[in-house]
Design a protein that fits this description.
heterodimer, A: alpha/beta, Vcp-like ATPase, Chain A, domain 2, 3 domains, four-stranded antiparallel sheet, B: about 450 residues, Rossmann fold, eight-stranded mixed sheet, seven-stranded mixed sheet, 17 strands, binds S-adenosylmethionine, nucleus (chain B), TRM6 (chain B)
Chain lengths: ~325, ~450
């Protein structure tokens, strides 16, 4: 229940982020009991590299405090969509924070937007969407994989977010988003292998005053098909972008300096001795990792104009978007 | 429907080709695009997103009115008969365009429609028909770009504003690119019901308006926007035209002045709750006089009035001149809040900025859910001063176009024992041209800035 708004104290049943180091971040549930693999009710113990954590002990602790483990310590944080993305159980490929941030801004979401998402997948992006549209908006999220739909809905309930999200089991490419969503959406987001098949349904779902669309695709062929479908259906401001984030490690480095001055003078033993003292220069630098993801996916964006502007199909935007 | 209708007083984004400009529409107002002066009165009553054609005013050269259009003349309607398979026969000797520049300008002054001009250009271009279809298209675009006569009117959104400012001059937003902005909002965990503290010394109001946009209408979220000068920049904030109730939840204060109020006026304001009513009932006499006596200009943090306009740095380019000029005029009138009667019935004028300071101090007293620093100055002293107001477990987010100040901050935070998850990052962002058989990254790219973020602990 710890995803809805800001909280100070850990309550029973909260999902809690356990931070050990920047590379060791986990999510645990502040439940006294849990089910063992055999289905028996057992004490909820979470094993970390620094020893065991009795999850019951978390209840009543303040977020942002240190907690002791049997062989060390860690810190507890309230989950945000970003921390959840880092720790969630992967059931599919997921959308990471740099893309998710851009998607939310590009879809122009505000706390009263209606947004449609497909597929739900592991619910990584859904959490970011829900934060953006609460409390007056709603997320309708679709997946054709029944178990993912169920897991996602249980998760949203456990996170205290059910009020703002409806999870539906449906193949959106063949069945669309349902007539009950005709002309209700401010924005549509697609993360599907064949997004161009869902775009015509998106057109129906978007409000008469128009709206935004974003499709995330790893492959350029998908992008090409999506772009031509978007153009055919009258979308404007069609744009494809890619965002990659690099995280730096800030370091102080000491570099030895070779003293080459004495090469110009005749060899003199005593002077040479003096020059053996090493000179060192300290510099501060930001070092990128030796490898990092070089590609996640392309974000293809577009605007469906309002009904009164749709007659201008062949619009100046489309023909000029790529000039700038 | 109503809010989709263009009215006087609205801020519009005027779009011509790839070019956009922010404009406030007033009766008898005009907008200057390049050399063209366009009268805008005709678009009032029309809807956003409509497209208008520029019609030259009889007897004038570059003065236009606007007329709604339902159909566009585009390159597709131009007659392109032949195209060469490749460009082996094209010799560019600088003479391939037979119309001179002057002749083209003359055509233009005769108010020939842009597709007519382009057609004439084609007819007079010796090489056009031997160009490949690909380069023909490029040529047409190049020409059309210059002669395009349509403008579209858009309602400002954070996305459009971020793009508009960045395209005009990244310095207008201290170098914040749209992806930077998106990440600042996420790392700061901006949402509808938190209390947030922003220090922003010059993003044309972009960060303020983006945060307020994410806080949303009819919610409980509040933002303290601290800035260093007499006035804050708020072009983007005004452009968003938030409803009054939402505008009121954004508290603009001068950084020095609000901190002085917090530390020096101490207990005086603390008793009141956040509602203005209660504050007004306080024995505000001494309190307000104390602050009033300080004649420092920094106390004159006048930018919170919903009617006041933004003021821009001198280095801002001329594109927003109209808005800027207007702001300067308005900001000269020092605005005071409504007179409040105190218990004894005497009327005490409490300056607007002082009420805002007090409002902000109440929030600071309770601490905030994230702190965002987007500073021209070195962020270190600002961050040090603001951190005591950050709740435990919440995030600090600092943006800078260069990484060195953030490196300093990184070490500072690492050395404090109450910070974890300190990250320094920057983005690579690339746009793609996607066209059949012609998909490639766009030939120009740019570089975003650096973001430092971290979580504060209770130690
Ligand atoms: C990559 S995952 C989405 C991940 C999600 N964006 C996240 O951040 O967790 C793609 C999902 O789309 C679903 N899917 C694929 N085709 C679909 C269709 N035609 N209709 C509905 N869902 C579909 C898959 O079952 C899968 O769960």
């Amino acid at each position: 229940m710890s995803f809805n708004g800001f909280k100070e104290v850990i309550g029973e049943g909260d999902t809690v982020i356990l931070y050990l180091t920047i590379h060791q971040i986990y999510s645990v549930k502040a439940d006294v009991k849990t089910l063992s693999k055999k289905g028996a009710t057992v004490e909820n113990i979470f094993q970390t590299p620094y020893g065991a954590l009795k999850c019951a002990d978390l209840i009543g602790k303040k977020y942002g405090t240190k907690i002791n483990l049997s062989k060390g310590w860690g810190y507890v944080l309230q989950p945000s969509p970003e921390l959840w993305t880092l720790t969630l159980p992967h059931r599919t490929q997921i959308i990471y924070t740099p893309d998710a941030s851009m998607i939310v801004l590009q879809l122009e979401l505000t706390p009263n937007s209606i947004v449609i998402e497909s597929g739900t997948g592991s619910g990584s992006l859904s959490h970011a969407l829900i934060r953006a549209i609460k409390p007056h908006g709603h997320v309708y999220t679709f997946d054709f994989h029944e178990q993912r739909v169920q897991t996602a809905s249980t998760e949203f309930k456990e996170h205290g977010l059910s009020e703002w999200v409806t999870v539906k089991h449906r193949d959106v490419c063949s069945a669309g988003f349902g007539s009950e969503l005709d002309n209700v959406a401010d924005a549509v987001f697609l993360d599907l292998p064949h997004p161009w098949l869902a775009i015509p349904h998106a057109t129906k779902a978007i409000k008469e005053v128009g709206g935004r669309i974003c499709s995330f695709s790893p492959c350029i062929e998908q992008v090409q098909k999506s772009c031509s479908t978007l153009a055919e259906l009258g979308f404007q401001e069609i744009q494809t972008i890619e965002v990659l984030q690099t995280q730096y490690s800030v370091q102080a480095r000491s570099l030895n300096v070779l003293n080459l001055d004495f090469v110009k003078i005749k060899k003199n033993d005593s002077e040479n001795e003096k020059n053996k003292e090493k000179e060192v220069v300290r510099t501060i630098t930001s070092v990128p990792p030796s490898t990092q993801p070089g590609h996640t996916g392309f974000l293809t964006l577009g605007t469906l104009p309002p009904v009164w502007a749709k007659s201008l199909k062949e619009q100046m935007e489309n023909s000029n978007m790529d000039i700038e | 429907m109503n809010q989709n209708q263009i009215k006087f007083g609205d801020y519009l984004i005027i779009q011509r080709q790839g070019y956009t400009k922010l404009h406030k529409i007033k009766p008898n107002g005009t907008i200057t695009l390049g050399k063209d002066v366009i009268q805008l009165d005709n678009i009032v009553g029309h809807k956003y997103y409509e497209t208008f054609r520029m019609i030259v005013k009889p007897g004038s050269k570059r003065l236009y009115t606007l007329e709604e259009v339902n159909e566009l003349t585009t390159k597709n309607q131009l007659n392109i008969e032949q195209s060469g398979a490749d460009n082996r026969n094209i010799i560019d000797d600088g003479n391939s365009q037979a119309l001179t520049k002057d002749e083209i300008e003359r055509l233009r002054d005769q108010a020939v429609s842009s597709s007519d001009i382009v057609e004439k250009l084609i007819a007079n271009s010796k090489t056009f028909n031997s160009k490949t279809e690909y380069s023909q298209e490029k040529y047409l675009k190049k020409k059309e770009k210059k002669y395009f006569e349509y403008i579209q009117v858009r309602k400002p959104s954070i996305r459009l504003l971020a793009q508009l400012f960045y395209r005009q001059d990244p310095a207008k937003t201290l170098g914040i690119r749209i992806d930077d902005l998106s990440q600042i909002l996420t790392y700061a965990n901006i949402q509808s019901d938190g209390k947030f503290l922003l220090y922003d010394s010059g993003t044309s109001g972009l960060v303020t308006s983006a945060i307020m946009n994410s806080i949303g209408p009819n919610t409980h979220g509040q933002l303290i926007h601290a800035h260093p000068g007499n006035e804050c920049q708020k072009a983007a904030f005004l452009a968003m035209q938030f409803p009054q109730e939402q505008v009121d939840r954004c508290i603009h204060v001068n950084l020095y002045s609000v901190l002085r109020c917090y530390y020096q006026e101490g207990g005086n304001y603390v008793k009141g709750n956040e509602s203005d009513k209660k504050q007004n009932q306080e024995k505000s006499g001494d309190n307000s006089q104390n602050v009033n006596q300080k004649s420092h200009s920094e106390d004159n943090a006048k930018c919170s009035g919903s009617n006041s306009e933004s003021t821009h740095e001198a280095n801002q380019d001329s594109q927003n001149d109209e808005i800027t000029k207007q702001s300067n005029i308005n900001s000269r009138k020092r605005k005071h809040s409504e007179s409040d009667s105190n218990e004894t019935g005497t009327v005490v004028k409490r300056p607007y900025w002082q009420l805002e300071n007090e409002k902000a101090c109440h929030i600071l007293q309770e601490k905030v859910d994230s702190i965002i620093v987007v500073a021209k100055e070195h962020p270190m002293s600002i961050v040090k001063e603001l951190l005591p107001f950050l709740k435990d477990g919440r995030t600090l987010v600092v943006f800078n176009l260069v990484k060195e100040p953030l490196q300093d901050l990184y070490f500072y935070l690492k050395n404090r024992t109450d910070f974890i998850g300190v990250k320094l990052s920057n983005n690579f962002m690339r746009n793609y041209q996607v066209l059949p058989e012609r998909t490639h990254p766009e030939v120009i790219m740019n570089f975003g800035g650096y973001i430092l973020s971290g979580y504060k602990l209770n130690m």
